[in-house]
Amino acid sequence: MRIVSGIQPTGPIHVGNYLGAIKQWISLQDKNECVFFVADLHALTTPYEAKDLQKSVTEKVIAYLAAGLDPDKVIIFTQSKVKEHTELAWLLSTICPIGELERMTQYKDKSKKYKENINAGLLTYPVLMAADILLYKAQAVPTGKDQEQHVELTRTLARKFNQKFGQIFPEPKSMMPEYGAKIMSLSDPKKKMSKSDESKSYISLFDEPEVITKKIMSAETDSGKEVVYNVTKKPGISNLLTIYSLLTDKPIPEIQKDFTGKGYGDFKKALTKVIIDYLEPFRRKQKELQSREVYIKEILEKGQERARIIAETTMLEVRSKMGLT
Asked: Among candidates 166, 134, 135, which has minimal Cα distance to 153?
């Protein structure tokens, strides 16, 4: 299968991003044709520092590699370097009903969050995301729960295009983890973990052990002290149990059994050790890659060329079907 996905460069990659998407990417790269990009065009829709953008792109590529992506097995590139993303986004916008965009949950959420910056890009973001996916004729998209609605719109646009102009695009399916597709904030377990929130609400892939310890030990839990999974009544401890389970591949009932008769403090200490040990190889690899700028540049240039070949071929078909050639 051809798999496509991307993450914005702004903000650090956190455990929620890793468990919801990148961990899937690693497991998919051996037996599939994978296209993974840094979504710098999407990052422009919310406030950012232009002078820091290129540095942020490099940091994301380092994070991808440190987490386990193999540039010999997958295509890694920067979204804006392949101009066909924006061309296809415009063409798809001409067949996308505006009502579909206005009902998008992320548009509503970001409009509330960035009241001083409600731009057209926030509204049309899902069309660009559809272009990102359809440009490579992806059959599947590893995604978190919050992006599922956008993948559904991508399927709708693929179907509308095929019906109106002729068959080109497959209708991609979402690939979500069986559970843990949405990791919640450490400071507010009723909200999704987000890099745009205060840093104590998430664990970055490269947080130092003492930082991880502080964040987990101060993570919000619930009344009582039993280590029991119950999202409705105990969202805090349930979120921490999910993280523990996903990082150890241990079923939640087994973890609960291990902590029978113990309290939140014992569990948090154990979880802290699990996270620190799991992320230690990522921290080591990140430090090594930070001194290899030429290597990172070569990976991006190679990935860009491979991506462009696919993108140009798709756009020749699209332009022909739409009467543009």
From this structure: 134
Answer yes or no: CATH 1.10.240.10 is held by domain 206-287: yes
Per-residue pLDDT reduced to its tens digit, 127-186: 999 999 999 999 999 887 778 889 999 999 999 999 999 999 999 999 887 776 789 999
Backbone angles phi, psi at 133, to 5 degrees: -80, -50
- Is 85 strand, coil or helix? helix
Active-site annotation, residues? 110, 192, 195
- Give residue-wise pLDDT tens across range 29-70: 999 999 999 999 999 998 899 999 999 999 999 999 999 999
Assigned CATH topology for domain 2-181+293-321: Rossmann fold (3.40.50)
Query: Which has the closest alpha carbon to 140: 31, 64, 16?
Result: 31
Q: How many CB atoms lie within 10 A of CB 56?
A: 18
Contact between 25 and 5 (Cβ < 8 Å): yes
List helix spans (H) across 23-104.
23-28, 40-43, 53-67, 84-93, 98-102
Integer Cα distance of 206 and 190 in angstroms: 24
What does each C-alpha distance from 283 to 6, 46, 65 come to in angstroms?
21, 28, 11
**Residue spans per domain, the chain:** 2-181+293-321, 206-287
